[in-house]
Amino acid sequence: MTATFETQRAALADVVAIPVTPFAEDGSVDPATYRALLRRLLDGGITTLTPNGNTGEFYALSPAERTLVTELTAEEAGDRAAILVGVGHDVPTAVASARHARDLGASMVMVHQPVHPYVSQGGWVDYHRTIAEAVPELGVVPYLRNPQLPGARLAQLADACPNVIGVKYAVPDAARFAAFARDAGLDRFVWVAGLAEPYAPSYFSAGATGFTSGLVNVAPAVSLNMIEALRSGDFPAAMKVWEQIRRFEELRAANGSANNVTVVKEALASLGLCRREVRPPSKPLPEDERAEVAAIAAGWSI
């Protein structure tokens, strides 16, 4: 790996925050509130931001809204954070989004797992290769949710595209992750635990050095406490954080993660930080579940 990407690699070996996208009363993206939420993350010590991630409701945003979110993040973060912009959909759209991110000064793009119903292994490589080759200056991070893909395919991609420097691994199987990382090249990539804090301890034990987080929108200090414990190899301390966040993350993961974003926005709404509204196919929490989320958020040191 050339030294060109060392800064990007270091940024991935951290809490990789996935900001929510707040909506105004009329349903549009709320730029002022989004900026305020970003400032809260930055002031809380977060230094890696992923606009247009799944917690940001990537697939519910229009192309113009995704562009807006990227621009707001670049403007607000300045040189305070590395920006890892989520891109995806069809290849021309993903390439255009990646080039837009580059032009705004972002240093990396995260390529969402293709949602096409028919994804071949070779097609997966071709999809990511086309995007990576379009922005050789940027670090490229595949978001991997496909348990069928072997590690050798990632190695094949990186052989062609040296700017593929990390992986957001989001298959919920720590043993599979350990094998995949070693088949692809454990030291070749930065391995980011893509299922956030609940999976971070087990994935760190197998070679991950960073994790993504939606919870960080609510309580940056909690996420930072976990990564500090994991970096020092203090797994008992990391598991104390795990216990602290367990119920919150169980609520997010219930029913096939139906309320993954909803619970985060509900917690933020309970703190007066943004509106609770999400877009279909997500849905706000019913009244009887809101109190539990608010109580959890209120109990954290925020």
Describe this structure in words.
With 302 residues, the protein is an alpha/beta fold. The protein has a single domain, classed as TIM Barrel. 49% of the residues lie in helices and 11% in strands. It has twelve helices and eight strands. An eight-stranded parallel β-sheet has the order 1-8-7-6-5-4-3-2. The longest helix has 23 residues. The protein is globular and about 50 Å long. The protein starts with 5 loop residues before the first helix and ends with a helix.
Structural descriptors:
single chain; 302 residues; alpha/beta; TIM Barrel; 8-stranded parallel beta sheet; 49% helix; lyase; DapA-like; Aldolase_TIM; 4-hydroxy-tetrahydrodipicolinate synthase activity; Dihydrodipicolinate synthase
Write a brief caption for the model.
With 302 residues, this protein is α/β, with parallel strands linked by helices.
The arrangement of helices and strands along the chain is HEHEHEHEHEHEHEHEHHHH
**Span between termini:** 39 Å
Poorly predicted spans: none
Name the CATH superfamily classification: Aldolase class I
Using the CA coordinates, give the radius of gyration. 18 Å
The class by helix and strand makeup works out as alpha/beta
What is the second-level CATH architecture?
Answer: Alpha-Beta Barrel
Helix content: 40-55%
Task: Label the overall shape.
Answer: globular
Overall pLDDT confidence:
96
Per CATH, what is the topology? Answer: TIM Barrel
What is the number of domains? 1
